[in-house]
């Protein structure tokens, strides 16, 4: 039975959604497709190449529409939000992307737009590169924590040990309770705006 590249990627995403990152193995993927493991390498050189293709697919709808008159700050905010939403679509999406971080078509398109926007403001190569990737690292990190937290979100009936710990650290307890009851968008936008404002300061630009 011959399989096509898209079938492999789609089946991998289905396994990711159903079993999580740890459950996405070559053996389970082959079983899902009804083939032997070596057949998976018809379109991919090795396991890493296959997983990189799956990770790249997570981002295929990000930054596909350019806005010529858009300020770089607005672009960074928009693309960052698009990346987060794309990763939230799939279970462990952020962890999976962070594990592979492919140098691929979709990643290149996204980063090229962001880097070019910074360079158009006069940023040097280092500032443009680190400004872009630091922003994306924040997005991936926050989203990974968000997804992990949603799976293990504690209720308000905390264990005695946790209650004791929070009583000893009231500042942490207050922040913990606030975050439990807050909208994740609030936290994400707070950190993202801080990142963008930091870049404005680095570039000595007005907000």
From TrEMBL:
Location of the DNA-binding region in this protein: 25-44
Record carries keyword Nucleotidyltransferase: no
Location of the HTH tetR-type domain: 2-62
The entry's keywords: DNA-binding, Repressor, Transcription, Transcription regulation
Source species, domain of life: Bacteria
Role according to the record: TetR is the repressor of the tetracycline resistance element; its N-terminal region forms a helix-turn-helix structure and binds DNA. Binding of tetracycline to TetR reduces the repressor affinity for the tetracycline resistance gene (tetA) promoter operator sites.
PANTHER family from the UniProt entry: HTH-TYPE TRANSCRIPTIONAL REGULATOR RUTR, TRANSCRIPTIONAL REGULATORY PROTEIN
Name the record gives this protein: TetR/AcrR family transcriptional regulator C-terminal domain-containing protein
